[in-house]
Design brief:
homodimer, 217 residues, alpha+beta, Arc Repressor Mutant, subunit A, 2 domains, 3-stranded antiparallel β-sheet, 9 strands, 28% strand, globular, DNA-binding
DNA sequence: AAATATATGTTGCAATTGCAACAAAAGGCG
DNA sequence: CGCCTTTTGTTGCAATTGCAACATATATTT
């Protein structure tokens, strides 16, 4: 197995990874589209890593609405520890979207010091912290966008964040406009209307999903 | 010093805490209201713990607007690792509100295994994970509220979460209505208008900050 | 106790938004 | 290619919302 691309193991030599892999009692499993990969509240003590394929983190609302909380692609990590849990009354689970291979690590193996004294354990802990922090940053980014009161401000805020992430005024949206409307939690048509207005006012130009921010942005 | 109330050290004996305290090179500092306690991006390698008093985590917007990202009361933990960082272009810092004592721990002392092999180190790591998770949960809760499209749905969603947290249909709001309006990111007067409407329709009753949810809620 | 600040409650009005209903374009798939 | 699904783009209209401007009540400070 190639550990170098898995963020949880980044910076750790393949040899050490193999040792830990055995030491920790890691299991891997194949999933078909539609299958439930992980159920929050049930599989409490596992951390999951998507080795290949795609999955989504879903929430079933009180009102029966399914919401995508997160897209989990290759190398994504999920589990109670990296929780999105929200109000515990709703069902939250990971569903396979495209045939996927997933590794599961018992959570306490990560936190506790390994009895067999695996080297690099503290590095693993650091990586885990880093992953959790990244998740917190992503959540904060979304709050930053959602905290704006008007659609215009939400779009603008989102574009500013993308500008920062990409480091330049030209970049491609990471997903469709429909998905963007979901992300900023507004009506798609209303968002498109505002987008058109903003383009007309010269704030930015868009060719498909390619955005070009103008001057002051 | 009394460690038993500090979440980062919970479950660890006072003796062990004292040992770690020395071992980690913890420093404590007093702050007056208005003073800057911690500057994100500058004090990168420190984790802060509010031992007494109060502080707030602030963001200075591009447009010069100060936003309260988080209230930090006794035992709150903050720092780059528990980051809220958002877009790195904005200034983010912790400001003392009420005279406070704050402890700072070098971040890498928490992740790395202590050279002097302090016992209970893995417990500390667990506590740190737990704190980060709690933060993620709090962020997710807010997203859950902010993701609603109407003020009514935002209020309702917020009350449902409070109901779950309190475990009953009667509870007190943890802050003022003004603060609630900030939290759900809507105009206060519009929120009050909707609140009045919802009360009139019998969804809940409010006596000051004491909420009583009706039946179906 | 008086003075000052902060929180709560209310309303009119203009602007924004969600919703519904389209039509056209682009992608995916056998 | 032709069929089907998803995405994009647009508009009218009713409902919601933000904003501004109040009045009153409750805290907090001097």
């Amino acid at each position: 197995m190639d550990f170098s691309k898995i963020s949880l193991f980044s910076g750790i030599s393949d040899d050490s990874c193999c040792a830990m892999y055995d030491c920790f009692g890691v299991t891997t499993q194949l999933f078909h589209p539609g299958q439930t990969v992980y159920e929050y509240g049930v599989d409490q003590n596992l951390v999951g890593i998507v080795l290949s394929g795609e999955a989504v983190l879903l929430r079933l609302d009180r009102d029966g609405e399914e919401t995508v909380l997160e897209n989990l692609d290759e190398n994504s990590v999920f589990g109670q520890m990296l929780a999105f849990s929200g109000s515990m009354t709703d069902r939250v689970w990971v569903r396979c979207e495209k045939a996927a291979e997933v590794a599961f690590i018992p959570y306490d193996q990560i936190t506790k010091r390994c009895e067999k004294a695996c080297a690099h354990h503290s590095h693993l802990v650091e990586n885990m912290f880093s992953l959790m922090q990244q998740k917190a940053v992503r959540l904060s980014e979304r709050i930053e966008v959602l905290s704006r009161r008007t659609i215009r401000e939400k779009i603008w805020s989102y574009l500013q964040i993308q500008k920062t992430l990409n480091g330049k005024d030209d970049f491609a949206l990471p997903f469709s406009y429909s998905a963007l409307a979901d992300y900023i939690c507004t009506d798609r048509s209303a968002m498109m209307r505002e987008k058109a207005k903003m383009e007309k006012e010269g704030l930015f130009s868009a060719d498909g999903r390619n955005i070009h921010l103008k001057d002051e942005g």
